[in-house]
Amino acid sequence: MSGLLDTRAEIRRLDVMADQDPGLEDLRYQAEQLTTAVQALSSLSRTPQERLDRALSYFTRTFRNDPAGHAFALWRRIYKAIGDPPLGTTVAVKIDILTPEERETIAQTLCELQAEIQKTCWEAERTADEAAKPA
Predict the structure, then answer these.
(1) Which residues contact 17 (CB under 8 A, 6 or more apart)?
(2) CA distances (Å), 11 to each of 69, 80, 93, 118, 130, in order?
(3) So what's the pLDDT on residue 73?
(4) Alpha carbons 1 and 6: distance in angstroms, whole number
(5) What is residue 104's predicted lDDT score, i.e. its pLDDT?
(6) What integer best gives the mean pLDDT of the chain?
(7) How many Cβ atoms are within 10 Å of 81's Cβ, its own excluded?
């Protein structure tokens, strides 16, 4: 069943990618959301379950469409680690049922995804700045 879901997601991703080119504002929003998600994972004032809930809440609200390129692979890795819930549903994952490997995958991949989106955002800002310079 998991392979079928992967195939459907891949087909949907290919259909969307032609129209998908996030603008600078979208990239800034994504970078901000993912930074907050990463910070939520490390909050010492919250329980592990609260940290996971908060991080996943920010993560699931970050993208209106599937991300493109390497970010897509990272995004999918997190979705697989949390049980591949249907897109658009509220994600509620009990930390007790996640394996140590799944918890590590979520934390590590969320950090990688935030770095990837931040890098893409910086590149888009640089390109916009260069385009705005007089010739």
Answers:
(1) 66, 68
(2) 14, 17, 26, 26, 35
(3) 96
(4) 9
(5) 96
(6) 85
(7) 21
20/14 Cα distance (integer angstroms): 10
- The maximal CA–CA distance of the chain, rounded, in angstroms, is 58
37 in Cβ contact with 62 (< 8 Å): yes
Residues 9 and 76: beta-carbon distance below 8 Å: yes
3-state secondary structure of 47: coil
For residue 23, give the 3-state DSSP assignment. Answer: coil
Helices 48-60 and 24-41: angle between axes, nearest 10 degrees: 170
| DSSP symbols for 66-132 | ---THHHHHHHHHHHHTT-PPTTSPP---GGGS-HHHHHHHHHHHHHHHHHHHHHHHHHHHHHHHHH
Q: How far apart are CA 103 and CA 100, in angstroms?
A: 5
> What residues have CB less than 8 Å from 99, skipping those under 6 apart?
none
Rounded distance between C-alpha atoms, residue 17 and residue 71, angstroms? 12
Q: Give the pair of three-digit tokens for residue 64.
A: 């209106």
**Global pTM?**
0.79
Structure tokens at 20: 């998908």
